[in-house]
Amino acid sequence: MQVQYDIILIMYTMVNYVEKRDIMTNRIIVAGGGHGGIAAAMLLAKKGYDVTVYEKNAKEKMGYDWTDIFDKKGWTAVGIPLPDKSKYNLKHDMTFYGPAMATALTQNTEEDKKEIQMERSDIYAHLIEHAEKAGVKFQFEENVEKPILLGNRVVGIKTDKGEYLADLVIDACGLNSPVRHNLPPSMGIQNNPIEYEQFYVYRAHFNKACEVAEHDKFKVILLPNNELGISWIATEEDHTDVLIGRFFKFDHDYAIDQINKMRESNPSIGTEILRGDSFANIPVRQPLGVLVADGYAAIGDSAFMTVPVIGSGIANSLKAAKILADAVSSDFNGSYSAETLWTYQKNFYKEIGAALAPLACVKLLLTRLEGPELDYIFAKGILNADDMTIDADSTSLGAMLGGMSIDDIKIKLNGLINNKVILGKVVKMGLQLAKATAVTAAMPVTYNRKTVLRWVEEYNACFKH
Q1: Composition of the chain by helix, strand, coil, percent to 5
Q2: Based on C-alpha coordinates, what's the Rg of the chain?
Q3: pLDDT value of position 385
Q4: Which single residue of 159, 171, 255, 347 could bond 179 by disulfide (Cβ 3.0 to 4.6 Å)?
Q5: Residue 214 has what pLDDT?
Q6: Which residues of 344-371 are buried (b: 16+ CB within 10 A; e: fewer)?
Q7: What pTM does this model have?
Q8: For residue 230, what are the β-bridge partners?
């Protein structure tokens, strides 16, 4: 049986990579139904490619049972119009607290820069509708298990229902992708996230027990109870949205215990769970060092494309879909090798990734701080409300720092100088950030495996805790 399978793979390879086929007959598989993967599928189907998405969930069960916040320009980046206004709201400004809850830092986001908030199910419905209209085929309720490899080339996927060959596999299986997990080390692609690179999240919507003041509608507590993580309480019109996020795994009992403690000072949290009541893992790290291999490209959470300090990744994934589709369609020979797909890697880092990587160093600083140190940073103005105003146009370190006045800088420096422990941690972050910025900028312009492997090793070393 294995001999027959090997023969099939060899024949398939000969047909696709020795003969010159019409590019428009080439088959592309999207493994997993991530937002970026579906958007890329749509754009490629519009160009005439044969594209199939394999997704483990049923169509009506796509996405978590909660809302998401993202930059609305993600839609326009892939040529999809915004959904009807009844399907989204503008995000509330957040009020941030340290663990002592002593100092409140409230965002002040300009109206035209506010992100939108949509039900995850509505995001998927809008995206899938446009993908199907473009000709994308979907195989729902089919779980991707691993890639099919021929040497160092990905030539298909294995699911719980069969094996499928393709000219290109786009990996949109998410943070713990079984495709990326099973790639050989020779590709230079990090198989799994490591410590402090993923966030464990519990989220539920409770009945709203009472009204709250406007500035208390969206509260975010950093290092709650001096633990590594965040908690939020978002009081909406008809419910209270509660999130417990930590850098360590926890169970349902722990989550409910934390919520019971929060209820004492947040009376809008009712006792009835209306929806959600579920867990998710979110990447909070620098983008994947190598996005491509022969016959393979990663996108979205599979490529760790979230903003490291906030975990938001939908808009980045949609924008990356356009970059990937353009790179694939510019490969006129249809080889989809690492060399030709490197255009995707290069342009993603140029437009998005190079700005995200330094933010991973800021995230690492937060994991090194003790609760009292963060309270000090809030109280002394080392972080202020403007610093916490992360809007759709400021998800890069340069944008965040660019608006600081001379007075802001003086306040920050005075606060740091008076606390040598915090100053030491900030200096360490600064050195790490400078190195990460320099190494990211030195990414190879063209793909050469040995050169890329040397570069990615240095890149990954920049983000050690």
Answers
A1: 45, 20, 35
A2: 23
A3: 87
A4: 171
A5: 83
A6: bbbbbbeebbbbbbbbbbebbbbebbeb
A7: 0.92
A8: 222, 245
